[in-house]
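Bit of a strange request maybe. I'm writing a small parser for structure token strings and I need a real example to test against, not something I typed by hand. Could someone generate the tokens for this chain?
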Amino acid sequence: MTLSRGLQRIALGAMGAFTLLAMAAYQAEVVINTTPSLPLGLYRAVDSPVVQDAYVMFCPPDSPVFEEARRRGYLRVGFCPGGYAHMIKRMAAGPGDRVAVTSEGVYVNGRLLAMSAPMRSDGGGRLMPRFTQDRALTGSELLLMSDVSRVSFDARYFGPLNRAQVRAVVEPVFTW
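Reply from user aminoacidic:
Good idea to test on real output. This should exercise your parser:
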């Protein structure tokens, strides 16, 4: 089956418009979250400090745990070093906060975070990475977590990240 020349032009025009829109959104640091890690919707970068409970957009470090996460489909391909897409999580703890990652869940300064119990295996039956610790975060470490999903790939599996990984603080524009 072949498309008429008119339909081909319309399809090419639509693809071109979508590509330009996606490029403009990327340049403006507007992202659409389609993951269960935070409310679905449109988010934009804002000029705000990285503080407790802020949503942050970050580049995952190029490391074995993130490479495995990409192979399993937890992460998308993107423009971060290592070819990863940006991730968005809530800052659950920062420098000086005591963090304990246990089989029960993640504790910050003695308080258990909601929905933070690590899964033993993913939906495909594969064992999840194990990360445990009980210590205060150092001056450049952040604990980035989901507070709305039990299945988020977050710090309970990869641990604290360096503040330098954060690209921007983001706020929801429209969520559903």
